Amino acid sequence: MPQAVELRVNGRVQTLAVDGRVPLLQVLRNDLGLNGPKYGCGLGECGACAVLIDGVAARSCSIPLDGVAGRAVTTLEGLGTAERLHPVQQAFIDTQAAQCGYCLNGMLMATVALLQRHPRPTDAQARTALQHHLCRCGTHLEILAAVQRAADLMSAGAPP
Predict the structure, then answer these.
(1) Number of structural domains, the chain?
(2) 63 plus 122 within the same structural domain
(3) pLDDT tens digits, the chain, 160 residues: what are they?
(4) Of 13, 67, 127, 146, which one is least surrounded by beta carbons within 10 A?
């Protein structure tokens, strides 16, 4: 049964009349029109649906809406704008890390979370942070290069 749920997404508070058991991904895409997070597997396995919840990368397809009430949710759309990209977004462009783009949302969100914890990650830390995000296009080396490029941009003072 629908109930009023307060949700803070990309810095804006939203009040929705939605069943709290509905997956966060469904609300983000269908009710709020945020299409950065993708529906991939629906099981929390592929990472295409990743968002940040209080700064931690999480799989939105397997988290019920009630689980994020009152918490800060950030989607790809909340990172930057077309005029002012987040350094991680710019780094993925600079290194040409995307091909089909389906995994890109998850890779970007995991990278943002990683760089918040480790501003200068080692290659091993980057691989560990991204290991559960599936990419079938084969841009793995470019994605790892993008992580290091983002670290460089952020340490040089590029605004997040």
Answers:
(1) 2
(2) no
(3) 678 888 999 999 999 999 999 999 999 999 999 999 999 999 999 999 999 999 999 999 999 999 998 899 999 999 999 999 999 999 999 999 988 888 999 999 999 999 999 999 999 999 999 999 988 887 789 999 999 999 999 998 866 6
(4) 13
